[in-house]
Amino acid sequence: MPIASAQVKSSLLLAALTAKKNITIVEGKYTRDHTERMINYFGGRVSSINKESKNYISLSDKSMDKEHSNYIVAGDFSSSAFIIVAALISNEADILIKNVGINETRSGLIYVLKEMNGDIQILNKRNQSNEEVADIRVRSSKLKGIEVPTWVIPNIIDEIPILSIAASFADGKTSIKDAKELRVKESDRLQATSDGLSKIGVHHKQLEDGIEIYGDSNFFIDRENIIISSYDDHRIAMSFLVAGMKSQNGIKVKDCENIKTSFPNFIELMNNLGGNLCEI
């Protein structure tokens, strides 16, 4: 595949499975493997081999022959990312998020935030329906900017908008590159993130394939009448609502109905944790 994409890979695997055909998919970078794990859990046969800096995923036409009465879907890591960053940039926060999927192809944001000096602990690790699950403890931290390794980008592609918020409240420059896929998500997420950062007063530089953010751990948003467009993108909406926690006068994010597509109780949960979000 010219661009590493877990969604495209999953579509091809499921199509081949339905057609009872063998398939080998070659990705330039390792992407999340939830579909492969699910197929194997039900007795299918998917293998992955890394060779010459490429990942080869092969599905045999063997039928799925295991009968399981239950399949437990792990808690969504992408949803937990908003809570994790909210806790890191808040004052005196100490939060335990339970039953989160920490699949190594999905939870690269943990690695990145730890590199940024985030106080994050992985507790009670266990296996559940062929997926790794754990509880995550997060405490307020004085973050620092880093150059995000390009190898982790496919793993964190959906979390880059909320990572950009963390970077805004981290000392120094955070550089995110090789993320051109963000331009063809639910919105052009690089442009949407850049537009939002400009509105809240964060110094940054948008790149063709990424963004450089010049943050400050003491940054506090003091502008008035900030109105940010979500571009009908749930991740942009939630990211800037989290940023609003560090605002003196609040932030208005337009078109937030889209949040319900992935995190329907986001507002209720954030308010239960001490936030002050309301629909108008």
UniProtKB/TrEMBL annotation:
<dbReference type="InterPro" id="IPR013792">
    <property type="entry name" value="RNA3'P_cycl/enolpyr_Trfase_a/b"/>
</dbReference>
<dbReference type="GO" id="GO:0003866">
    <property type="term" value="F:3-phosphoshikimate 1-carboxyvinyltransferase activity"/>
</dbReference>
<keyword id="KW-0057">Aromatic amino acid biosynthesis</keyword>
<keyword id="KW-0028">Amino-acid biosynthesis</keyword>
<dbReference type="GO" id="GO:0008652">
    <property type="term" value="P:amino acid biosynthetic process"/>
</dbReference>
<dbReference type="InterPro" id="IPR001986">
    <property type="entry name" value="Enolpyruvate_Tfrase_dom"/>
</dbReference>
<dbReference type="InterPro" id="IPR036968">
    <property type="entry name" value="Enolpyruvate_Tfrase_sf"/>
</dbReference>
<dbReference type="Pfam" id="PF00275">
    <property type="entry name" value="EPSP_synthase"/>
</dbReference>
<dbReference type="GO" id="GO:0009423">
    <property type="term" value="P:chorismate biosynthetic process"/>
</dbReference>
<keyword id="KW-0963">Cytoplasm</keyword>
<dbReference type="InterPro" id="IPR023193">
    <property type="entry name" value="EPSP_synthase_CS"/>
</dbReference>
<feature type="domain" description="Enolpyruvate transferase">
    <location>
        <begin position="1"/>
        <end position="268"/>
    </location>
</feature>
<keyword id="KW-0808">Transferase</keyword>
<dbReference type="GO" id="GO:0009073">
    <property type="term" value="P:aromatic amino acid family biosynthetic process"/>
</dbReference>
<protein>
    <submittedName>
        <fullName>3-phosphoshikimate 1-carboxyvinyltransferase</fullName>
    </submittedName>
</protein>
